[in-house]
C-alpha cells in the first residue's frame, strides 16, 4: 500500500522528535547550505526542511511530491550539521524522511525495479560488482568506449552528465584488493603500532582498487599491520541516504558481525562517505537492543586512514615540487569531523607548495549519486568549485572520497584544465611521494 | 493561499517564479527564530528592486493585505511571524553592495546584504562597521536596521542606529521616501532615519541604506577575569568605567552559562566560578597594551580570582568566539530556549542578576544569564521544553516578573531584539499610556490602513500574551 497519507503517518512515528525539537530555528546553518545559496528559498534550507518535516510529524501537513522534491534536492552534505549550534543531526532526519518516501510514496513501477536492482541486487554483492568491473574494464580497454565518444554515439546513448563521468572514469579493474593481495595480513614496517582491517568499500574496490592497495601499503609503512578481511560488505551509506533503510540496517549488521571475530584495533576507511556512515551504525541500529552494544564497539574502531597516518610512524616521503590543494569530502568533514589530518599529511611532503582552497568545506555537487539525479545543480556547484580551484593555480587537487574524486575529474575536464591539473586521492599522492616517482 | 486575482496581479509584477503560495513555501515562511510562535502566511513574494516593492505595496494598500518584510528570519521577537496572514516579502534578492565611499567613509547597500558581507567588504579596505550581532553571518542589514540590532561592541561603538546615515524606503502607499544622506550633520525636519531604525517593518520597507564607517582599529586584545561571586564582578565593571576606560567589549557570563559554553567550545573556562568577565580592547597597538595593563590591574584589585590575557589576537578571537556561541551552546541543554533581552543601568547589573536567580528559583526554571555587562544589556536565557505546557506557564510568569524588575530598576524590556509580538503586551509598562498613544499616532500617520507588519509592537490585550502559540 502506498499513498502520501501513509508517508505522513509513517513520519509521525519515525521522525526523531527530539532532533526536530532541538532545532531552535536560529538560521545559523543557512549560509553553509549549498541549496539555500543556489535558490535563496527557505524551504531549500536546513531550517526550512526541518520545519517541513516538523509540520508533517505533527500532522499539520500531508506530504506530497513537492515535499519529496525538497528532500531529494538536499545534497545530504551535512554542512548544516557542522554549523549547527544546537547539534541537530540533520542527516538522520533526512534519512528518516527519505525512508518513509521510498517505502510509502506512490512511485512508478519501473523506478521501483531500478532501485531494487541497484540497491539490492548489485551494490551489496561483491562478485556481481566485480563482474561489472570486468565488463567496464573490457568496455574501456577494448576501444568501444573510444568509439562511442569519437563517433558521438555516446551523446545519443547517455545523458550528458553520465557521458562526462564516463569520459573521466578511471580504468575499472576486474581485480579488487583481495585479488591484488593474496595474504590476509600485510605486516607493519618498523615497530608495530596496531592492527587495522581495511574497509574496502564497494565502488571503491572496483574503480579505485589501486587506491585500496595503496592504502594498505601506506598504512604498513606507518607501522600498522593491515588485515585484508573477506567478511565484509558494502557499508550501506548509499542505501541509507537514498531511503533504503531496511537494507542499510541489514548491511550494517552483516559488517558488524563480519568484523567481530577478527583481532584488530581499528577498521580503516579511505572513503569519507563510508567512514561517516560506519561510525553512525549505533544510531542506525538504536532501536534494536540486540545490536546496540556491538554497533557501539564497532563504531569506536572506525578511523579514517588520515587519522591513523597522522598518529603513525613518519613516512619516508620524497619531495613533490608542485602546488597542491585539498577539497574536503563532505562526510569526512561534517560526519567524521576529520578536517586537519589530511592537511597535516599533505604538509609533511617535502617541498610541497600547499595552498588552501577557498570554500574547500563546500560540497562539490557529487553527493553520492546526486550528480546523476540532479545534474543541473550538481554542475552549477561544480562550476563554482572549479572557479575557486582555478584561482589556486594548483597542479594537484587532493581529495579523500571516491565520489568527490570522480566529480573533480569531471570538473577539471569541463573547465578544460586537464593539461594543468589532476585530481588524486590523498593516499595515492602519499604513495607517489614515498616511491619518489615524481620530481 | 492567495486569491487567484491577487496572485495573477503579483505575478504580473514579479513573474511566476517569485510569487509562491504552495504549502511548502507557506510553512517555511511561517516562523522566525522566536520560539513558541508560528503562523501561516497567504503567500510569499521575492522582489528584486524598489519599483517592484512599490507596485506590491500599492496593491496591498488597495486590498488591505498585510505585508511582512523579512530578511533572514533570525529575529527574536516573532517579528516576521504573519499572525494576521498576508504576504511575506522576502528581501534577500536585494543583496547588492552599491558603493563603498572611501572619501566620505560610507557604504551604501541594499537591505538583503548580510551583515557579515558588509564586515568583510569594508575590512578589506581597512574600514570598520562595528555593529556585530551574534547572528551576523546570516542576519541581513535590513533586519538589523529594522530591529535596531546591537552586538558585543555596543559599549564603545554603539549599535546599528548609530551607523545609519540615510535610508531609502517605500511607504505603505507605495511612495518612496529618502531620509538623511552621507551627512554627519542634518537637522532638516524630524529625524526620520532614526524613526525607521527599530521600526520592525511596521512603518516602511527599507530598500537602501547608507551606513557610516570608521577606520579599522589597528589591533585588538582580549582578556578574561574570573570571579567567585557576582558582586565583585559587578564592582569590577563599575571600576573599569570609572577609570575612564571604555573597552570595545565587556561581557558577562554567569556560572550556568560558563559551564555550558565550556562543554561546547572547550577553551578552558572555569566551571566553578560565579561569573566571568570577557574584556576586549581595540585601537592602536600602544594604547591597547596600556589599557590591557590597566584593566588587568583593575580586575586584580577588584578581587578577581584569576585573570588571563590572550597572548595573540587569535587567542582572543577564540575567547570571544565562546561568547558569541553562548546562546547556541545553551541550546544543547533543553529542547527549547527562550532568550530574553532586558537592559538595566550598568549600576543595577548585580541586583538584576540576583533577582533573575531568585525568579528562577521561584518558578523552578533553569535560567542562564550572560550579556553585555558594559551597557547593562543582559540575556537571561530560559531553558525549557515547548511541549510541556505546565512549564511554559511558569516561564510566562517568570518573564513578566523579570520585565517588572527591569523596569523597577530603571531598565527596559528589550535592549536590542525588538518588541514584536513577544513583548507587545509589556510595552506599555515601559513607555506608559501616553507613550503608546504617541507611538500609535506615528504608526497611523505613516501606515493609515495598517498593512505593514500588523500586530507587532502594539497589542489589543496588554500584559496578556497573544499570538498563535505553537
Ligand atoms: C542565535 C541568535 C543570536 C542573535 N544575536 C543577536 C545579537 O547579538 N544582537 C542583536 O541585536 N540581535 C541578535 N539576534 C536577533 C536577530 O538576529 C536580529 O534581530 C537581526 O537583526 C535580524 O535580522 P534578519 O535579517 O534575520 O531579520 P528578520 O528576522 O527577517 O526581520 C527582522 C525585522 O526586520 C523587518 N525587516 C527585515 N527587512 C526589512 C526591510 N528591508 N525593511 C523593513 N523591515 C524589514 C522584519 O519585518 C522584522 O520586523 C540574534 C538572533 C539569533 C537567532
Ligand atoms: S545536508 Fe547539505 S544540502 Fe542538505 S540541508 Fe544540510 S547543508 Fe543543505
Ligand atoms: S543551525 Fe541548527 S538549530 Fe539553527 S536553524 Fe539550523 S538546524 Fe536549527
From TrEMBL, chain A:
Enzymatic class: oxidoreductase
Keywords: 4Fe-4S, Electron transport, Iron, Iron-sulfur, Metal-binding, Repeat, Transport
GO MF entry, a single one: metal ion binding
Gene3D superfamilies in the cross-refs: Alpha-helical ferredoxin (1.10.1060.10)
Reactions the enzyme catalyzes: glycolate + A = glyoxylate + AH2; (R)-lactate + A = pyruvate + AH2
EC number: 1.1.99.14
All residue ranges annotated as the 4Fe-4S ferredoxin-type domain in the record: 11-43, 65-88
Keyword Flavoprotein applies: no
Known role: Component of a complex that catalyzes the oxidation of glycolate to glyoxylate.
Protein name: Glycolate oxidase iron-sulfur subunit
Organism: Marininema mesophilum
UniProtKB/TrEMBL annotation, chain B:
Matching InterPro entries: FAD-bd_oxidored_4_C, FAD-bd_PCMH, FAD-bd_PCMH-like_sf, FAD-bd_PCMH_sub2, FAD-linked_Oxase-like_C, FAD-linked_OxidoTrans_Type4, Oxid_FAD_bind_N, Vanillyl_alc_oxidase_C-sub2
One GO molecular-function entry: FAD binding
Entries under PROSITE patterns matching the protein: FAD_PCMH
Family: Belongs to the FAD-binding oxidoreductase/transferase type 4 family.
Organism: Marininema mesophilum
Signal peptide interval: none
Alphabetically ordered keywords of this record: FAD, Flavoprotein, Oxidoreductase
Domain FAD-binding PCMH-type, residue spans: 37-216
PANTHER family in the record: GLYCOLATE OXIDASE SUBUNIT GLCD (PTHR42934:SF2)
TM ranges: none
Keyword Oxidoreductase: yes
Cofactor(s) needed for function: FAD
Protein name as it appears in the record: Glycolate oxidase
Pfam families hit by this protein: FAD-oxidase_C, FAD_binding_4
Amino acid at each position: 500500500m502506498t499513498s502520501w497519507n501513509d508517508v505522513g503517518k509513517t513520519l509521525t512515528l519515525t521522525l526523531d522528535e527530539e532532533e526536530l525539537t532541538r532545532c531552535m530555528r536560529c538560521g545559523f546553518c543557512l549560509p553553509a547550505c549549498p541549496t539555500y545559496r543556489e535558490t535563496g528559498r527557505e524551504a531549500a534550507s536546513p531550517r526550512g526542511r526541518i520545519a517541513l518535516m516538523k509540520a508533517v510529524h505533527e500532522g499539520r501537513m500531508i506530504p506530497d511530491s513537492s515535499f519529496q522534491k525538497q528532500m531529494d534536492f538536499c545534497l545530504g552534505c551535512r554542512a548544516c550539521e557542522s554549523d549547527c549550534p544546537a547539534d541537530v543531526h540533520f542527516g538522520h532526519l533526512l534519512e528518516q524522511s527519505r525512508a518513509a518516501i521510498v517505502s510509502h510514496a506512490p512511485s512508478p513501477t519501473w523506478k521501483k525495479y531500478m532501485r531494487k536492482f541497484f540497491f539490492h541486487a548489485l551494490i551489496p554483492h561483491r562478485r556481481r560488482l566485480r563482474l561489472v568491473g570486468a565488463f567496464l574494464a573490457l568496455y574501456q580497454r577494448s576501444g568501444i568506449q573510444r568509439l562511442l565518444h569519437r563517433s558521438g554515439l555516446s551523446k545519443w546513448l547517455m545523458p550528458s552528465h553520465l557521458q562526462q563521468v564516463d569520459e573521466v572514469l578511471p580504468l575499472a579493474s576486474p581485480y579488487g584488493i583481495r585479488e591484488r593481495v593474496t595474504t590476509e595480513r600485510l605486516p607493519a614496517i618498523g615497530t608495530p603500532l596496531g592492527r587495522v582491517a581495511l574497509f574496502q568499500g564497494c565502488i571503491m574496490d572496483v574503480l579505485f582498487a589501486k587506491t585500496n592497495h595503496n592504502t594498505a601499503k601506506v598504512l604498513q609503512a606507518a607501522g600498522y599491520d593491515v588485515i585484508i578481511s573477506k567478511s565484509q560488505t558494502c557499508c550501506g551509506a548509499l542505501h541509507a541516504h537514498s531511503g533504503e533503510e531496511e537494507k542499510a540496517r541489514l548491511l550494517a549488521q552483516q559488517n558488524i558481525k563480519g568484523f567481530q571475530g577478527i583481532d584488530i584495533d581499528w577498521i580503516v576507511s579511505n572513503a569519507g562517505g563510508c567512514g561517516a556512515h560506519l561510525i553512525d551504525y549505533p544510531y542506525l541500529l538504536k532501536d534494536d537492543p540486540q545490536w546496540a552494544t556491538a554497533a557501539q564497539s564497532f563504531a569506536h574502531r572506525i578511523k579514517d586512514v588520515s587519522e591513523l597516518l597522522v598518529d603513525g610512524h613518519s613516512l619516508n616521503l620524497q619531495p613533490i615540487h608542485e602546488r597542491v590543494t585539498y577539497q574536503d569530502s563532505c562526510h569526512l568533514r561534517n560526519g567524521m569531523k576529520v578536517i586537519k589530518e589530511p592537511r597535516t599529511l599533505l604538509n609533511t611532503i617535502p617541498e610541497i607548495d600547499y595552498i588552501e582552497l577557498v570554500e574547500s568545506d563546500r560540497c562539490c555537487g557529487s553527493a553520492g549519486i546526486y550528480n546523476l539525479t540532479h545534474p543541473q545543480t550538481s554542475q552549477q556547484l561544480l562550476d563554482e568549485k572549479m572557479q575557486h580551484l582555478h584561482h589556486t593555480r594548483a597542479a594537484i587537487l587532493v581529495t579523500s572520497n571516491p565520489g568527490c574524486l570522480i566529480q573533480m575529474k569531471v570538473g577539471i575536464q569541463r573547465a578544460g584544465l586537464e593539461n594543468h591539473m589532476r585530481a588524486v586521492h590523498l593516499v595515492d599522492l602519499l604513495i607517489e611521494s614515498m616511491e619518489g616517482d615524481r620530481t | 493561499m492567495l486569491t487567484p486575482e491577487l496572485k495573477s496581479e503579483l505575478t504580473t509584477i514579479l513573474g511566476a517564479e517569485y510569487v509562491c503560495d504552495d504549502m511548502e513555501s507557506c510553512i517555511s515562511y511561517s516562523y522566525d527564530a522566536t520560539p513558541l510562535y508560528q503562523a501561516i502566511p497567504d503567500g510569499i513574494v521575492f522582489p528584486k528592486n524598489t519599483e517592484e516593492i512599490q507596485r506590491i505595496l500599492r496593491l496591498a494598500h488597495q486590498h488591505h493585505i498585510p505585508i511582512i518584510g523579512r530578511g533572514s528570519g533570525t529575529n527574536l521577537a516573532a517579528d516576521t511571524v504573519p499572525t494576521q496572514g498576508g504576504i511575506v516579502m522576502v528581501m534577500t534578492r536585494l543583496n547588492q553592495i552599491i558603493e563603498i565611499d572611501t572619501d566620505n567613509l560610507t557604504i551604501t547597500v541594499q537591505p538583503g546584504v548580510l551583515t557579515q558581507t558588509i564586515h568583510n567588504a569594508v575590512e578589506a579596505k581597512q574600514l570598520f562597521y562595528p555593529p556585530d550581532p551574534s547572528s551576523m553571518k546570516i542576519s541581513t542589514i535590513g533586519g538589523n536596521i529594522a530591529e535596531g540590532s546591537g552586538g558585543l561592541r555596543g559599549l564603545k561603538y554603539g549599535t546599528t542606529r548609530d551607523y545609519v546615515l540615510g535610508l531609502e524606503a517605500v511607504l505603505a502607499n507605495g511612495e518612496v521616501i529618502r531620509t538623511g544622506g552621507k551627512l554627519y550633520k542634518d537637522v532638516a525636519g524630524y529625524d526620520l532615519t532614526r524613526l525607521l531604525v527599530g521600526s520592525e517593518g511596521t512603518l516602511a520597507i527599507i530598500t537602501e541604506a547608507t551606513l557610516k564607517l570608521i577606520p579599522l582599529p589597528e589591533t585588538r586584545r582580549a582578556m578574561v577575569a574570573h570571579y567567585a561571586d557576582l558582586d565583585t564582578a559587578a564592582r569590577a565593571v563599575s571600576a573599569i568605567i570609572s577609570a575612564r576606560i571604555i573597552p570595545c567589549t565587556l561581557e558577562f557570563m554567569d556560572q550556568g552559562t560558563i559551564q555550558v559554553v565550556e562543554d561546547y567550545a572547550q577553551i578552558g573556562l572555569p566551571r566553578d566560578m560565579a561569573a566571568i568577565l570577557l574584556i576586549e580592547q581595540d585601537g592602536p597597538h600602544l594604547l591597547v597594551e596600556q589599557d590591557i595593563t590597566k584593566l588587568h590591574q583593575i580586575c586584580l584589585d577588584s578581587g578577581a580570582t584569576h585573570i588571563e590575557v590572550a597572548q595573540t589576537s587569535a587567542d582572543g578571537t577564540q575567547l570571544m568566539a565562546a561568547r558569541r556561541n553562548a546562546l547556541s551552546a545553551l541550546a544543547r541543554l533543553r529542547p527549547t530556549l527562550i532568550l530574553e533581552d532586558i537592559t538595566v543601568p550598568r549600576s543595577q547589573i548585580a541586583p538584576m542578576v540576583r533577582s533573575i536567580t531568585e525568579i528562577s528559583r521561584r518558578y523552578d526554571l533553569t535560567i542562564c544569564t550572560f550579556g553585555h555587562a558594559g551597557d547593562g544589556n543582559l540575556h537571561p536565557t530560559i531553558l525549557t521544553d515547548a511541549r510541556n505546557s505546565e512549564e511554559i506557564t511558569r516561564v510566562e510568569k517568570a518573564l513578566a516578573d523579570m520585565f517588572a524588575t527591569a523596569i523597577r530598576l530603571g531598565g527596559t524590556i528589550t535592549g536590542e531584539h525588538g518588541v514584536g509580538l513577544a513583548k507587545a503586551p509589556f510595552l506599555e509598562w515601559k513607555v506608559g499610556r501616553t507613550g503608546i498613544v504617541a507611538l500609535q499616532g506615528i504608526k497611523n500617520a505613516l501606515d493609515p490602513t495598517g498593512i505593514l507588519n500588523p500586530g507587532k509592537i502594539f497589542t489589543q490585550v496588554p500584559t496578556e500574551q497573544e499570538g498563535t502559540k505553537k
